[in-house]
Design brief:
It is built from eleven helices and eleven strands. The chain is an alpha/beta fold. Strands 3, 4, 5, 6, 7, 8, 9, 10 and 11 form a nine-stranded mixed β-sheet that branches.
């Protein structure tokens, strides 16, 4: 919002800090409507301000091509300078908050529900032991929600059970997991050392919703085998599957991390179905030191379990 009483230095600025914030939001999100959501303002307000900025600067920042907002060459150059200013502002903001909280630092993270029972709690416990003064806010999120959370700065880092594809985000796989079959101990398949997908036919089966990322992953493998596995009931996350299996509704295919803490019999698949757990963060600013510390802890955990992904390298801190 513009200041009511601007000093002579502010009045001398043609491209003011508020202009930079709105311009940056449009560059990050790629559209006026998405930028408005990111800034919690109306779409017309963003559109009018961009037009005003272009008028003050006397050149175009964006062109509309096939209903897409495309940054001009001038906008690309300007964005690099705006990002430098924005990063400096973040450091000032972090300093200001730190002074008010007695030097405490903050870390806000989100993760896929499948990682919330074992992987993330173990890492957060270690992180808190190593950084006792660090304030941590943690939530579970659907992978489709993660881009907006990161770009709107509601979270600093997301840990996703599968890669998140977005033009403005890094999604770096660091740990490999696998899908397993879970069932009550008394089930007819419980004594098998491993199971092929074909062996699940004819049994009451509970599967992920087909529009969910894990549902899509399983559907691809089932289709590749030429199988038709009917689901008695579809669910959104693995914790729901565990609850349904415990009620005797059938068996299920879920990730190994929720499975190992479920209290159910866990049988591996003969032909493993893998998934890659990824760190998700903005392309426009490197992770904070606190976020990088958590990434180091999680990567070490992956290596200890023999699940690290070859070639993964931690990013450079800001």
């Amino acid at each position: 919002m513009p200041l009511d009483h601007e000093g002579p230095e502010a009045r001398a600025l043609v491209f003011k800090l508020r202009h930079m914030e709105v311009f940056r939001a449009v560059m990050l999100t790629g559209s006026i409507s998405a930028a408005a959501k990111m800034l919690y303002v109306s779409q017309p307000a963003v559109s009018k301000l961009i037009q005003y900025i272009e008028g003050r600067l006397a050149y175009r920042l964006f062109e509309r091509i096939n209903n897409r907002l495309v940054p001009t060459h001038e906008a690309q150059i300007l964005y690099r300078e705006v990002e430098r200013v924005y990063q400096a502002a973040l450091e000032v903001n972090e300093c200001a908050l730190s002074l008010g909280s007695g030097g405490h630092r903050n870390l806000r993270i989100s993760c896929s529900a499948s990682l919330s029972t074992v992987v993330i709690p173990i890492a957060l416990a270690q992180l808190k032991r190593e950084s006792p003064s660090l304030n941590i806010e943690w939530q579970t999120s659907l992978m489709g929600e993660m881009p907006n959370q990161i770009l709107s700065k509601k979270v600093d880092l997301s840990i996703a059970a599968l890669p998140v594809i977005h033009d403005h985000l890094h999604s770096r796989a660091f740990m490999r997991g696998r899908m397993v079959v879970v069932m009550p101990p008394e089930h007819a398949l419980a004594r098998h050392p491993s199971l092929a997908l074909e062996q699940l036919q004819g049994h009451a089966l509970l599967l992920f919703r087909p529009d969910m990322p894990f549902g899509k992953l399983l559907a691809e493998h089932i289709h590749r085998r030429g199988l038709q596995l009917e689901s008695l009931l579809s669910f959104t996350n693995a914790n729901e599957a565990v609850a349904l299996v415990k009620q005797g509704m059938g068996i299920s295919l879920i990730d190994e991390f929720v499975a190992q803490d479920s209290g159910l019999t866990v049988v591996p698949l003969a032909d493993e179905i893998h998934f890659d757990i990824s760190f998700v963060y903005s392309r426009f600013e490197p992770p904070s030191h606190s976020a990088l510390h958590l990434m180091q802890v999680l990567h070490a955990q992956a290596l200890k379990l023999g699940r690290g992904i070859e070639g993964f390298a931690l990013p450079t801190p800001r």
